[in-house]
Amino acid sequence: MSASPGSRAFQNARLQKQARKQAEAVLAEAAKAHREGRHPQAQALCRQILKDLPNHFDALHLLGASEADCGRYEESLAALTRAVSIEPRSAEAQFKLGMALARLGRHSEARPCLEKAIALKPNFPSALTNLGNTLMQLRLFEQAISAHDRAIALKPDHAEAHCNRGMALVLLNRHEEADQNFDRALLFSPLPSALFGKGLANMNLRNFDLAVSAFDAALVAAPGNIGMLSQRGRLFMQLGRIDKAEADYEAVLAQQPNFEPALCGKAQVSLQAGKVAQALSACVQVLARNPQSEVALTLLGSCHGAQGETATAIEYFDRALAIKPDLDDAHNRKIFALDYLPGIDFETLQAARKSWWDAIGAKVPRRHPRERNLDPDRRLVVGYVSSEFRGHSAALALLPVLRHHDHAKFEIIGYSCLPAQDAVTAECRAAVDRWVDAWELSDDKLADRIEADQVDILIDVSGHTADNRLPVFARKPAPVQVSAFGHATGTGMPVMDYVLSDAVTIPENVRHLFAERIHDLPALITIAPPPDIPPSPLPLLRNGYLTFGMFNRIEKVSDPALAVWSKLLQALPRSMIMVKSAVLNDALLLDRWTARFEAHGLTRDRVRYIGSTTRTEHLAMFSQVDIALDPFPQNGGISTWEALQMGVPVVTKLGTGTPAARAGASIVKAVGLQDWVAADDDGYIAIAQRYASRPSGLAELRASLPAMVANSEAGNSRRYTSRVEEAYRKFWRDYCAANGR
After folding, report:
1. What is the pLDDT of residues 335-345, one digit of tens each?
2. I need a labelling partner for 149 at 20 to 30 A (CA). Which of 119, 225, 545, 664 fits?
């Protein structure tokens, strides 16, 4: 006789009761295994319970917690989701579910779980600080800090909450406050994450020794941690310790070949070393996994720029800025690259600078001007802020001015913004009255120092180039601020009062586009007398053929320039061209540029390629050049002066769209070679042909040109410096007049 439904129900209830009773003992054993870190046993016991009791909340909860401890967040999520569906009022289960979602990067889903855990259990500091972390990932930084504050109020010695609050403050660029939070965390627990955070904060504060010590200590506590190694690599990059940076990045990639920060770091190291193929490969690897990596997009743009693919480079910079509109590096690289783009105009260039100002500079708090001695004729304090106090073209333009300043009338301070030093650094340092290692100072501290030094006129030498300190100028720490000598093509900053230029480089009809007032000098830049290199006879006379030379950055060579040079060499069948650029040491770039030249008919038998040399060797090589060819639209600057000093005339074309396209004409005209400035492509070719057909006249010009340079107001650095000082005095007198004197 079969059992009745009632008896079967009774039997099932009895079995369920027996299973629950047995489950209590198994669960206790599982919990003990979990506490002791024996996760396989804990998980097996939980699954044993769930086989008979699939809705056993405690077993599901413990299983989810154990899976999370093992880093298996998908499995943890499955167990905890079931647990919460059975007992939605469990604050602990909601908390652990939120944590699993956060670990999987599903922060928008994690947030309501953590908020529900807190609603169920308001006195829950761990849930509060992890809610803060989730809000930080959602870029809700102020709300994140508020959540950490609530956690700390409940548990003042909560080391993780202090550390997490510090991380949120780092992302808000409140680095001093962040550093204090990391110190508080370390008072309560030697957390590796707090040491790491302290390294980050101090790196951003430019307290580099402290940052190195903090990262080193963090890595002792957490050896091989890939996040810590990557950030220490970034710090070493800032310090110019490229070998150490590369070692850290390689150590990370040995563990995790696709780790994005290390791949981006490797790309940056490779670019700096001129290894474009390696940089390109690293960027492509990042973007294959994360097409939205604004850092990789920016670096990939630079890879294309190094190969002369300017339009493509700018496309990548724009893609990066679409993702992160306030990415300073992408703005600066784009601004610099635009000068190389054929067909660009003044309006587009200044609009790009204004975009930087709107996204970054305008958001920097302005300083209130301190009281000044408004005597228009007193000795003035002039400060030069530069990352180029080293073997750099900007230093070659600035150094002669530093050497010839009248120190009775001007006190000169050099604010050096890069740790790299060389023989040129020593010369610059010897030429100023005071020297400040500004690379050790944050933007705020550097602005404080400039104010404390009572600088009257502050000069930016870097413009929108690498390692610039334009955010310091955005704070307006000095009464008069000037852009000059380095990348003086406009900053887009209303707080930059003047740009030193000349009437050719920035014509009158476009000056209204600039944020600054333009003050004219004899030429955009000057140059110091060359080393004592003996004069050389015209190579044409001994070779029997004409040798053109292009000793500029090869990125300046555009397709339109190559087309003109090709026509020129076709018109002079026995001529050839020497192309000298440091990046040609890289085999990939040499092959790429050779292919580009050949695509325009400039075959290897007509072109001689030379890589980097010492500067003395560089100048001596002009002995092999009859006529220099100025690239366009980006002209030469220092390289044009160098050719003229060595007796080599330069054919240039007066561009219409940018200061960079007119700089060559400015310099060539300034030494009296107006006939060497073309209005168009045909004129450019005609000038070269005309002088190529007059060897005797070319030889005479070669002999007289060094003296012409030395006697010109632009090429004589002492006279040029006097004009610079006249400008500074005028700026100060105008300031005094506008402010009550």
Report:
1. 999 988 998 99
2. 225
